Structure formats: C-alpha cells, structure tokens
C-alpha cells in the first residue's frame, strides 16, 4: 500500500436496459456491463484496469468517478460514501476526482481558448482562481510541458499530444486527490504516449494523487502501473501488484492477454514461461 486510502469501490454493478426488449407488460431486458467489481486506490498508487474492449473497465471508471450512477454497490472517497450524491453534493466530489478522457479534442471545447478551458472547473465550482486567470493558466501550462504563452490559442491549433496535456492541465486545476485516465494515451502515437506517461508519473510524484488508469495496452500498463486489475465480462478475474500479475499470471484470461503482447520485459517473459512450463 502506497499511502492514504483515497478511493474504495465495493461490489459495483451497472446494468443498462437492452433497446427494443420492453413491452406493455414486459420489462426491458438488462445488460450487466459491470458485475460486482471491488478495488482500493491509495495515494501515490496507479491502479490499472485492463482488459479487451467491452470488458467493463471504462464503465467501472465512470462509476468510480460518479459520471454514472451505480445500479448497486458503493463508492467511497476518503472514507465518505458518495454513491448516491446529487447536485451540489456531487459537485463537491468533482473537487476530489477528475477525469482525463481518451480523445482530447472531443473533450475540449473548440470555441474556447486554453485559458478558458483550464479555468473552467474552478469557475463551474465557483472557486477563486489563485493569482488570477491568466497567471494561473500560465503556471499550469508550464507544469504540463506547454508554452505558457499559448493560453490564447484554441484546441485546433495543437497536436494530439499537446491537446492531451491541456486536458491534464484542466484536470489538475482543482487539485484532485484522484485522477482517472480513461484510455488517455490510446489515441496517441507511441512516442507521444511515452511523453504523456512520463508527465503523469512526474506529476504524481509531485502531487501524490492516486491514479485509476484504464487501458487495453499491457505494454503501456507495465510502464505506469503499480498494481493491476484484469477485467473480462464485467468482472475482475485477477488483481495484484504489477510485477506479480505480469510475471506470474494465475488466470487463463490474463495469460492470453500477455501472450498477445508483441514485446514484454524479457525477465518477466522468461519467468512467466518458466512457471507455465512447470505447471
């Protein structure tokens, strides 16, 4: 355990009605996207939820961030149950948990300047902006490796990696304790992925936030995660610290995921093959 317990999810379930299955005297059939997921996230820890598309990992992340209501189960932030919070009470959760989305361009308003984008969370929460809007934005842009003088530019003037840095700056504006990265690097080139991963690691070392990192690329996960939970069909089938899950996977699904990775750290791959041969 790295530090203070920040986020606790217990028995999360999310069901969606299946379109076209409801009738006058017949309730809609329900699809279970997440079926009883539990995990803890500590300060300074990066927990990666991994699995194939449709495994339920992104839905789990949105439940934890309270972007979706749970069907059943509980979400606790710093020991406080936030599962059913609404309105102003839910807005308070946003000061603790922020999300970095997969496609930066779809999450950044193309008509807003960088300054307006970065300060929007504070304005939404009716909080004072330390040092004023311009200086605050310049400081955050510098922290995420962007030119502070770009505060008057628009999203279309940036590359994908630069736009993702703006998204990270916006998330950091409220000083979150938990950062949820939902496939935050999957749409980027490999070299840019490495830059964003290094940035997240450096920021986490400075701020001490917990990071819930959603990904399907195990090569990316091994670079950033401290612990891993493997999901399939809406459930966690294996969880543990990164080296254990990568070096000695216990579940067949995890072994299949690892076998599909073109390259993996040689010592982990050698250990995994040796254990598999000994079974």
UniProtKB/TrEMBL annotation:
InterPro entries per the UniProt record, alphabetical: AAA+_ATPase, ABC_transp_ATP-bind, ABC_transporter-like_ATP-bd, ABC_transporter-like_CS, Oligopep_ABC_C, P-loop_NTPase
Pfam family, one: ABC_tran
Gene3D superfamilies registered for this protein in UniProt: P-loop containing nucleotide triphosphate hydrolases
Keyword annotations: ATP-binding, Nucleotide-binding, Transport
Coiled-coil residues: none
Keyword ATP-binding appears in the UniProt entry: yes
Annotated ranges, domain ABC transporter: 7-258
TM annotation in the entry: none
Family: Belongs to the ABC transporter superfamily.
Name recorded for this polypeptide: ABC transporter domain-containing protein
């Amino acid at each position: 355990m790295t530090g203070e317990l920040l986020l606790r999810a217990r028995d999360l379930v999310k069901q969606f009605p299946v379109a076209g299955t409801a009738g006058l005297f017949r309730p809609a059939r329900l699809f279970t996207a997440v079926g009883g997921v539990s995990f803890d996230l500590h300060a300074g820890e990066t927990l990666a939820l991994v699995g194939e598309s449709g495994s339920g990992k992104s839905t789990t992340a949105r439940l934890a961030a309270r972007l979706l209501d749970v069907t059943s189960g509980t979400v606790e932030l710093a020991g406080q149950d936030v599962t059913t919070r609404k309105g102003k009470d839910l807005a308070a959760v946003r000061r603790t948990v922020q999300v970095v989305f997969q496609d930066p361009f779809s999450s950044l308003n193309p008509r807003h300047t960088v300054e307006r984008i970065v300060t929007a969370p504070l304005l939404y929460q009716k909080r004072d902006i330390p040092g004023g809007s311009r200086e605050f934005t310049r400081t955050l842009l510098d922290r995420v490796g962007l030119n502070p003088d770009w505060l008057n530019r628009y999203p279309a003037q940036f590359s994908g990696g630069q736009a993702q840095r703006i998204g990270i700056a916006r998330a950091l504006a409220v000083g979150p304790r938990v950062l949820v990265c939902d496939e935050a690097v999957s749409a980027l080139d490999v070299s840019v992925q490495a830059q964003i991963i290094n940035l997240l690691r450096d920021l986490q070392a400075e701020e001490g936030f917990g990071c819930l990192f959603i990904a399907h690329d195990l090569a990316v996960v091994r670079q950033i995660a401290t612990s891993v939970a493997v999901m399939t069909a809406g459930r966690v089938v294996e969880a543990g610290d990164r080296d254990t899950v990568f070096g000695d996977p216990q579940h067949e699904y995890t072994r299949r995921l690892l076998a599909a990775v073109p390259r993996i750290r040689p010592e982990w791959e050698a250990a995994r093959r040796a254990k598999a041969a000994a079974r």
